[in-house]
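Entry 14. Structure prediction run on the chain below.
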Amino acid sequence: MFVRTATASTTAAALIGAGALLLPADRPEAPERQDAPVVVAHRGASGYAPENTLAAADAADALGIEWVENDVHRTRDGELVVLHDTDLKRTTDVEQVFPDRAPWAVKDFTAAEVAKLDAGSWFGAQFTGARVPTLTQFLHRMERNRQKLLLEIKSPATYPGIERDIIRVLGRSGWLDRSHVRSRLVIQSFGADSVKKVHSLRPDITTGFLGTPAVADLPSYAAFTDQINPSYATIGADYVAAVQRLKGPHGKRLRVNTWTVNKAADAVKARDHGVDGIITNFPDVVRDATS
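Output returned:
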């Protein structure tokens, strides 16, 4: 779902100075409107910094974006780490550092080995040396930035028990107190069973199902999830309305956060469909188009 365009490169150049991301001084504050969807930075502001790194979280913060989406896997020795793919090839230099370890699956590497990898230079030389963060490190950065987290459990069948591990790390990092659970944390997955597991372990946590279930099946999802988060290409206003007519396990109407919307025109269409949130690599573009 990663998209990089010439426009993004131009904008990135304006944001990046001396290896750091800065919010341009002349950027106007976006006016708040009640009907504007929440903007979620996909893997951080991944149009401007290497996805799922601390730099991408900081890029979102520099743009004034509160909500950040990330992806969580588990290493061979049980550490939770933040990156998208089930293998390390695309976004790190693992093939150079560990040439004999194909297919370079995250689950086959220890946390110490993953920590050696460069997760930034593939995106741009100014990010050389960026690392794959642990979930704990990512949570600390979210806290420092006062940001909110949409956490995706990736490939849960690959990591039996990862839901309990994630909840344990969230608790140790102070993310399961009332204020975080009420307004700063959502856990989502493409795996319905994984979402159900989170709900059973911590019924107070807001959950999301990634996908576009048939309208007839939506009531069964409403028993365990608070959000239906579908691909933008799969929805229209009628579908969004069908989701929002239902109430989730916390007695509130189901919300819809759609992904991955990177163009202003598509963001306007998504807003007009009535979505509650838009997940995007270019959160400033979406915010400015929909505010």
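The longest strand covers residues 67-74.
Filed with the rest of this week's runs.
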